[in-house]
Amino acid sequence: MARTTGSDGGKTEAAVREAAVNLIARLGYEAMSMRQLAAEVGVQAAALYRYFPTKEDLLFTLMREHMEGLLEAWNAARPATADPAARLAAYVENHIAFHIERRHATHVSNMELRSLSHERLTRILKLRAAYEKELRAILRDGAEAGVFEIDDVGLTAMALIQMMTGVIVWFRPGERLSIAEVTTTYLSMTMRLVGAKIDAYDAARPRAMDAVAL
Amino acid sequence: MARTTGSDGGKTEAAVREAAVNLIARLGYEAMSMRQLAAEVGVQAAALYRYFPTKEDLLFTLMREHMEGLLEAWNAARPATADPAARLAAYVENHIAFHIERRHATHVSNMELRSLSHERLTRILKLRAAYEKELRAILRDGAEAGVFEIDDVGLTAMALIQMMTGVIVWFRPGERLSIAEVTTTYLSMTMRLVGAKIDAYDAARPRAMDAVAL
DNA sequence: GAATTAATTGAACGTTCGTTTTATTATCTC
DNA sequence: GAGATAATAAAACGAACGTTCAATTAATTC
Question: For an interface test with B, which of A136, A192, A197 has the most B Cβ atoms less than 10 Å from its Cβ?
Answer without folding.
Answer: A192
